[in-house]
Design goal:
Layout lengths: L2 H31 L4 E10 L7 E11 L2 E11 L4 H4 L6 E7 L14 E9 L2 E10 L2 E11 H30 L25 H10 L1
Antiparallel strand pairs: 1-2, 1-4, 2-3, 3-7, 5-6, 6-7
Helix pairs in contact: 1-3
The structure holds zinc ion (ZN).
Zinc ion binds next to loops.
């Protein structure tokens, strides 16, 4: 690997670790907040019937409910025109809502005619697709739910790896500067090429020998 690609890889990993840290800390914040609120962030857009197509309502929802984060995507098609409703501006916007603390909606809705295929549902982990098809109306939904502690823990791993690597890098740099083996810390001032303790070879010294040879 060239030095350039190593630096690029390190930079990419640093950005990734930083991104992970932001998610983990945000999840921690929402986990602490669960005591007071069940936040819901929704984007709802609707479009009236046009060109023989049904009226459509789409929703992307991110809910924080009792220590569980839930993402839901819904699409509802209705063959009846309700022009005022579908085209009203309030249906094409970002919404923030909140329920009472501890509130958690079930993975399946108790709606009439709703069929669901629940793959997982337990311990805050959920994955389901739901659909309903009745005369003049079709509804389908996709849900993923995960406990916040799992998000906090999973996204904390990359920053922790970054931290360990960074500390190791600092230690190796210090050892090299002090004339010690970067690998084990053995005093290499008398044997600058190869560490007599662990057998590690100093790269920069090896390189200069290779050039000479
Ligand atoms: Zn060594």
């Amino acid at each position: 690997m060239s030095k350039r690609s190593i630096i690029l890889g390190r930079t990419a990993f640093t950005i990734f670790a930083l991104f992970s840290l932001v998610i983990s800390v945000t999840a921690l914040g929402m986990w602490l907040r669960r005591v007071n609120l069940s936040d819901q962030y929704l984007w709802v857009s609707s479009r009236g019937p046009a060109d023989g197509r049904p009226a459509t309502m789409r929703g992307w929802e991110l809910r924080f409910e009792a220590g569980v984060v839930r993402f839901e995507r819904t699409v509802q098609e209705i063959d009846q025109p309700e022009v005022d409703f579908w085209n009203s501006e309030r249906n094409n916007r970002f919404k923030h809502d909140a329920d009472a603390p501890g509130f958690r909606r079930p993975l399946t809705w108790p709606a009439s005619g709703m069929t669901s295929r629940v793959y997982v549902d337990g311990h805050g982990i959920g994955l389901a697709t739901m659909s309903r098809s009745i005369p003049l109306s079709r509804f389908r939904s996709f849900v993923v739910a995960l406990p916040l502690w799992l998000i906090i823990a999973l996204f904390a791993i990359p920053p922790l790896i970054w931290e360990i690597r960074y500390r190791r890098w600092i230690l190796r740099r210090f050892r090299k500067g002090a004339g010690l083996c970067a690998n084990c810390g053995y005093d290499m001032r008398a044997t600058p090429v190869r560490c007599p303790e662990c057998g590690a070879i100093r790269r920069n010294v090896t390189n200069s020998i290779e050039i000479v040879g």
